[in-house]
Task: inverse folding
């Protein structure tokens, strides 16, 4: 159907987010709609475009599992109603391995909807691999068979498996969805002649921080499941290869294995702490409590405006209008062009954050311009990451301070100006750069005043704004509710977190959130306590100290 959206049937892999394919990730990052199943891990959902419509068909608001026929219809409906949209149908493992992806594809074909399949790593093979069990092994198993332990015959409700054939099969048998029926399956296999001593392993929540392997034999299968309380999702693997798992089990129990932690830093800042906690075995749900948004056009805060604010003893931050009022200012679409027209009056542009760089370039494009307007200008930035972001856009920085702070940058620029009385570019005829206010600072609305205080005549363009996240999407609320603890890196993150969860006026005991918080330093800890959390604080206000504290806490 021309003009309709396109559906991608994507395999999300068995759980470990590192096992999602690059292609799968690229699609969910830009998808407009993501229709996902229960088994897809929150860490993978975290990769999805934050503006995507997220549809949980494992459990809908009614708390009923959506029927397969309804899912099929839903995919067609999204494609028809959203011309040009990218619709991701995200499934655990591989979409065509007991994933009913084939049925969905057939429905799309009959509705004339374009689709693609992005295979995933199936749990059938990868989960045993994470337990150190190769599904085939020279001299032990020359074939492996993936079987559903769930499918019932329509005629009599019996499991529709050919137990005679399976019992004779010399290869490795891998059962998905079979835990509830395993006692029956094992008995039928033995009745049909399979050796009761055949080794088998149940692997629960494989590849996730909660992975557990339980070994048994065919004759002890049922009792072992009951005794060890093996629960879904789990696979059962049977055959000689299972013995290898005793030698090859490579996945270490790490200090934070089995812990689910909520990290509240902004996505761009959080990857450091997320990587460190993940390396210790934790499952991390990134839940940034602030988000940044590029303004439609830069908000110009010139020297005179600041003076007015200062004389009235106003906080400069108050001068920066909300998105709404900026929107009004930008109503005339040429407003951004007018602002950018002024760019020719600056000799030096100073960037103090990656967000500043990204937002400035978005606006530059929106104004119908490109990098050529920066020809001949000097460029300064605050640190290495900002420098790299500029370099990616083909721009070298002339000035990067050794101390990567606003004060460091201010000091450097002052010294440049003071030393030369300066002519920063060939075009500049001014002897006094500061007097002429030829420095332009590209910043966010919450940037502190260090730089403008050190360079009082500079002009500031507020190119992006930082806002608290008002509400968490449903999938995140669920993941958060089941977490062991929250990690707070600032007081404002605590406040925003408590506000963004439903029942925020309640104490954490009654709201759907963990009661325990790890905090970076005493100020954050005080705020968390005030909000009813039990807390542990890092010794120093650094991410490393915080991560160390968390690992130590759970190692006790
Ligand atoms: N398409 C999926 C399978 C869907 S059927 C795939 O290719 O993996 C769902 C079954 O898969 C579960 O009942 C369980 O048997 C198995 N499974 C999926 N993820 C698993 C995991 N992380 N650990 C253990 N079993 C898993």
Result:
């Amino acid at each position: 159907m021309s003009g309709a959206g396109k559906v991608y049937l994507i395999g999300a892999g068995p759980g470990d987010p590192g096992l999602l394919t690059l292609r799968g990730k690229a699609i969910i990052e830009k998808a407009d709609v993501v229709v996902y199943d229960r088994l897809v891990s929150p860490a993978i959902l975290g990769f999805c475009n934050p503006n995507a419509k997220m549809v949980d068909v494992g459990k809908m608001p009614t708390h009923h599992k959506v029927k397969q026929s309804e899912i099929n219809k839903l995919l067609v409906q999204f494609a028809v109603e959203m011309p040009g949209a990218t619709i991701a149908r995200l499934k655990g493992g591989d979409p065509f391995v007991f994933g009913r992806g084939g049925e969905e594809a057939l429905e799309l074909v009959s509705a004339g909807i374009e689709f693609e399949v992005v295979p995933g790593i199936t749990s059938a093979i990868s989960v045993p691999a994470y337990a150190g069990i190769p599904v085939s092994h020279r001299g032990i198993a020359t074939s492996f068979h993936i079987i559903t332990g769930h499918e019932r015959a329509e005629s009599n409700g019996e499991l529709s498996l050919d137990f005679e054939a399976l019992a004779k099969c010399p290869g490795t048998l891998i059962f998905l969805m079979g835990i509830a029926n395993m006692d029956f399956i094992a008995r039928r296999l033995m009745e049909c002649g399979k050796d009761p001593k055949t080794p088998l392993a149940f692997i629960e929540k494989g590849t996730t921080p909660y992975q557990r392997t339980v070994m048994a034999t065919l004759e002890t299968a049922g009792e072992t499941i009951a005794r060890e309380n093996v629960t879904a999702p789990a696979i059962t693997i049977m055959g000689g290869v299972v013995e290898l798992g005793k030698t090859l089990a490579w996945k270490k129990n790490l200090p934070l294995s089995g812990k689910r932690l909520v990290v509240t830093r902004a996505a761009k800042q959080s990857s450091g702490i997320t990587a460190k906690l993940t390396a210790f075995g934790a499952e991390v749900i990134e839940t940034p409590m602030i988000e940044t948004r590029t303004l439609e056009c830069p908000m110009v805060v010139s020297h005179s405006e600041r003076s007015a604010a200062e004389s009235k003893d106003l906080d400069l931050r108050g001068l920066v209008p909300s998105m709404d009022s900026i929107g009004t200012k930008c109503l005339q679409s040429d407003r951004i062009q007018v602002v950018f027209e002024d760019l020719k009056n600056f000799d030096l542009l100073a960037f103090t954050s990656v967000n500043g760089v990204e937002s400035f370039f978005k606006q530059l494009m929106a104004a119908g311009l490109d990098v050529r307007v920066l020809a001949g200008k000097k460029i300064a930035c605050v640190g290495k990451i900002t420098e790299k972001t500029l370099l990616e856009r083909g721009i070298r920085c002339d000035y990067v301070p050794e101390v990567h702070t606003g004060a460091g940058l201010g000091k450097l620029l002052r010294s440049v100006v003071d030393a030369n009385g300066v002519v920063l570019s060939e075009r500049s005829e001014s002897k006094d750069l500061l007097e002429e206010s030829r420095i332009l600072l590209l910043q966010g609305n919450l940037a502190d005043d260090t730089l403008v205080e050190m360079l009082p005549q500079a002009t500031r363009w507020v190119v992006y704004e930082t806002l608290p996240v008002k509400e968490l999407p449903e999938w995140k609320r669920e993941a958060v509710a089941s977490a062991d603890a929250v990690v707070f890196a600032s007081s404002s993150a605590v406040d925003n977190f408590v506000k963004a969860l439903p029942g925020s006026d309640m104490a954490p005991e009654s709201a759907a959130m963990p009661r325990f918080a790890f905090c970076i330093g005493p100020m954050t800890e005080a705020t968390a306590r005030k909000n009813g959390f039990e807390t542990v604080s890092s010794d120093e206000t650094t991410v490393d100290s915080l991560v160390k504290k968390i690992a130590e806490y759970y190692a006790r």
Observations:
- The radius of gyration is 29 Å.
- Residues 14-15, 39, 91-94, 97-99, 122-124, 127, 176-177, 203, 205-208, 232-235 surround S-adenosyl-L-homocysteine (CB under 6 Å).
- The first strand starts at residue 6 and ends at 11.
- Confidence is low (pLDDT under 50) at residues 311-332, 422-431, 505-510.
